[in-house]
Amino acid sequence: MILIGSRALFIRNKKLLNRDPNDFDFLAEENEAIEWLEKNKTNIGSNKIYYTESKNKLISEGDSNIEFELSRPGSSTEQLISLVKNDPETLPYGKFGLVPNLDILFLIKASHRYSKDSPHFWKTMMDYHIMKKAGCKIREEYKELLALREKETYTFKHPNLNVDKKSFFHEEEGFYKYDHDSLHRAVSYPEAPAYTLFMKDNAEVKSDKNKFMALDMQTKIKAVIEESAVLALERSIVPHPGVLNPEQAWRLAFSKVCSSITSGWFREWAYENAIECLKAYPKDYVDKFNYGLENNIVKAFK
After folding, report:
1. Is 259 domain-assigned?
2. From CA 219, how far away is CA 263, in angstroms rounded?
3. 3-state secondary structure of 284
4. pTM here?
5. Domain assignment of residue 301, yes or no
6. Residue 159 lies inside a defined structural domain of this protein
7. How far apart are CA 272 and CA 221, in angstroms?
8. pLDDT in tens, 172-214
9. 103 found inside a domain
10. Is the pLDDT of residue 165 over 80?
11. Do 282 and 225 form a contact (C-beta atoms < 8 A)?
12. Which of 33, 42, 257, 269 is least enclosed, having the fewest CB within 10 Å?
């Protein structure tokens, strides 16, 4: 049985955790998970034990919440358990099993950083960046395992960018009140929107990675914070006025840019540079939107 999550990180280096660990997370064979729960039921005060719908996790809720990610043939969980058991850096930790080395804990953290609508998005992001700054990395020999775990984790679809603008927005027709590009012009006013600097030639939606990477750091940050501002307007401020304040709406949109709304290299860059992007939160984006409405910069969606 393998102890992972915040408790494992605390054991390895408590300075890398900016909170007290509350729950227990394990990788385990199903039989040993059941046996462990039975043996420790008095101490953990469990009042509800159940499997997730996929049957890949066993959950115990009570005084302490405990999650067992169960090993299945061919799964990344099975490979991780084997890796940890055979790793000379593994730390035995009594009745809590084995504690992986920091790079394996980082691999596990990295494998779900883009999870869609995760209630743990901000916690995961902060942990990821603290660990990365401390020197944790994806070792070359772990990369195939990371790819498998990501494949198991990210089952949602992303927007198709190889289409024209009309087709791109068609699936959510009726959701948009204002033209997307005109919102970009409003929040970037008086400068040109940052995304126009890295558009793929002869494309209405798709971006060019090489053009983006050639930009200076501040322009790249500007691209991310502008995209988040436009999404905040489209999905929160305009359709649901007063539900979230501007910063809450923007942070929610930013979390989507870093997980499920975008994909590939742009999402990766936004996530890897999230701390700098958060520092650059555009406090005036709603004011700029209102100015754009008043001055015919913002156009109706057609």
Report:
1. yes
2. 19
3. coil
4. 0.90
5. no
6. no
7. 11
8. 545 689 999 999 999 999 999 999 999 988 666 689 999 999 9
9. yes
10. no
11. yes
12. 42
